[in-house]
Design brief:
A hairpin with a 4-residue loop joins strand 3 and strand 4. The termini are far apart. This protein is α/β, with parallel strands linked by helices. 36% of the residues lie in helices and 21% in strands.
């Protein structure tokens, strides 16, 4: 039975349906309305310790993130990706705020990305607290099975943030959609500048241990090459940290002087911290004036970089500060035995010089 369920889940996560183009619900409607949800809905079966697919005839037509009152004593366990960058800090604060709004207790641990040992160690600490549900922001793909096995063995339902996993509900930006939108934007930007596509190289900085999250880069490349087929594309492994990533960019620029296909360097990254690593490499090499980078997440550091007028020209807004509003609403529905979509994706928005001042005002 478990094998059948996991197979169904792995197939059905690919079927998504757009339900609105807005972030917030229309006036008069409660909660936040996501941009996309999976066609498949699931319900937590506590006796079987599994999320089970609901027959299509019984599925609701829509879901919104509405935070109600949590039952007394509700405990939400939260595995933070890290506490070290503006994006995850915004997510962490949003989780605290949303849990408080619901009247639920929140017990949080720090997975300490990019450490590969800490996710399992910290997940064990979550399990020992016996939460009603676990929210796992574990992005290191190779560690997800062992971490989630701890939750499965303890019969704790899991909401994954960003990284898909069997027997869990997923929340976060659609990696595929984020990549496609970034690629389309970057291609328009290059055309607007009038750069010769034959002299443009798209640098694809991937982080191998992040698995499917790299689709933000690979899908960007597909979209960009479709619009500018005469451009070049080079995938660049960044290692496990932004320090190794910046060095990888520096080494690549040294091997590819500012002539021919590398006269102009553009890049789409998986997150703003990696955009900054690419930008630092370009600045150090004195090649930032003929470069353009689009990031993902539109965290405070990314938006500040856009405002500064350097090589980072845009970033996709993930609304990190409201992750908690979506996730806590999902958590309360799961705990209550209500059906939820197998995947929930928020709306994405491009932040560039035209609207960057509207974000993080006063910061």
């Amino acid at each position: 039975m478990r094998k059948a369920f996991l197979m169904a889940a792995s197939l059905t996560v690919l079927a998504l349906v757009a339900i609105t183009t807005g972030v917030a619900a229309p006036q008069g409607s409660p909660g936040l309305v996501p941009a996309q949800i999976a066609r498949d809905w699931v319900k937590w079966n506590k006796s079987a310790c599994k999320f089970q697919i609901i027959p299509r005839s019984q599925r609701p037509k829509r879901w919104s993130a509405t935070i109600g009152k949590a039952p007394q004593g509700t405990l939400i366990g939260f595995g933070k990706q890290s506490e070290s960058n503006p994006f995850t800090q915004a997510v962490n604060l949003g989780m605290e705020r949303a849990a408080k709004k619901a009247g639920a207790d929140l017990f949080a641990v720090n997975y300490q990305w990019p450490d590969t040992a800490q996710p399992a160690i910290q997940a064990q600490a979550l399990v020992q607290k016996k939460p009603d549900i676990a929210v796992s922001f574990n992005v290191i793909a190779a560690t997800v099975p062992s971490v989630n096995r701890l939750f499965d063995d303890a019969c704790i339902p899991v909401i994954q943030i960003t990284q898909r996993a069997p027997n869990s509900v997923l929340f976060g930006a659609s990696n595929e959609d984020a990549g496609k939108r970034a690629g389309a934007y970057l291609a328009r930007h290059v055309k607007k500048l009038g750069w010769n596509a034959r002299e443009v190289t798209l640098l694809g900085p991937i982080v191998p241990n992040l698995g499917a999250i790299n689709k933000r880069v690979t899908e960007c490349a597909k979209e960009f090459k479709s619009a500018l087929p005469q451009s070049s594309y080079e995938e660049l492994p960044m290692g496990a940290s932004v320090t190794t990533g910046q060095q990888a960019v520096t080494d690549w620029l040294t091997a590819h002087p500012a002539s021919g296909a590398a006269k102009y360097v553009v890049s789409c990254t998986i997150a703003d911290i990696w955009s900054i690593a690419v930008a630092n490499g370009l600045n150090t090499a004195g090649r930032s004036s003929n470069a353009a980078i689009i990031g993902q997440g539109a965290s405070l550091d990314g938006v500040k970089a856009i405002r500064s007028g350097g090589p980072i020209v845009a970033s996709m807004w993930f609304d990190a500060g409201r992750y908690g509003d979506y996730v806590v609403a999902l958590a309360l529905d799961v705990i209550a035995g209500r059906p939820v979509p197998l995947q929930v994706h928020q709306k994405l928005l491009v932040v560039d010089k035209n609207n960057a001042d509207k974000f993080y005002r006063g910061q």
